[in-house]
Amino acid sequence: MTQQLLKKKKKKWYLIIATNEFNNIEIGETLLSEPEQGLNKIIVVSLYTLTNDIKRQNNLILFKTISTKDNKINTEIIGYTTLSSYVKRQIRASKSRIEESFLCKTKDNIIVRIKPLVPIKYKPKKSVLTALRKKLKNYLTNAIEKQNYIDIINSIINFQMLKDLQNELKKVYPVSNITIKSLAKEEIKGMSEKPEEIKHTLQEKTI
Fold first, then answer.
1. DSSP classification of residue 123
2. Per CATH, is 84-185 categorized as 3.30.479.30?
3. CA 19, CA 49: separation in Å to the nearest integer?
4. What global pTM score does this model have?
5. Of 13, 90, 130, 184, which sits 20 to 30 A from 1 (CA to CA)?
6. 8 Å CB contact between 111 and 185
7. C-alpha closest to that of 63 among 49, 50, 77, 74
8. DSSP 52
């Protein structure tokens, strides 16, 4: 029994590190016997935490742990989501809305699923909604095809994609407060509509 206890490897703390886009800041810490135990896990972090920008408090970034080095666990970005509570407020404040969910391929051949939401203050004609829906899907599909995956994430984070999309849709009907409910690599099957409820399998202490 004593020999078995001696053989049992002592656990160590490993830092979980964000990607270059967020200056490789620490986003968590986990206690492991072997570093490989911390791989292929999803970590959900508030964009406000990552950027210290209060405007991003309703948005989350999904990281996946991919490698270890020097007691650190490195990650990649696998998705972006908006808090379900914020989405519900947007819907309640609108008379009508357009919600979509469809697959696109990025310039670097990554398949992503995007879920945009366009809340509409008034109730337009059915023909207007149809035209808005068509322009929405065409614009996002073309925009995603022309950019690499990480550039798309950045354009959502800095609101540029939303600004450009809003300008396009305004040619059909006045819209505002467009939201990307989520954009994620299609490898994340069954991602919750409430990303804040995703259960972490790591014992991380997020900041």
1. -
2. yes
3. 14
4. 0.83
5. 13
6. yes
7. 77
8. -
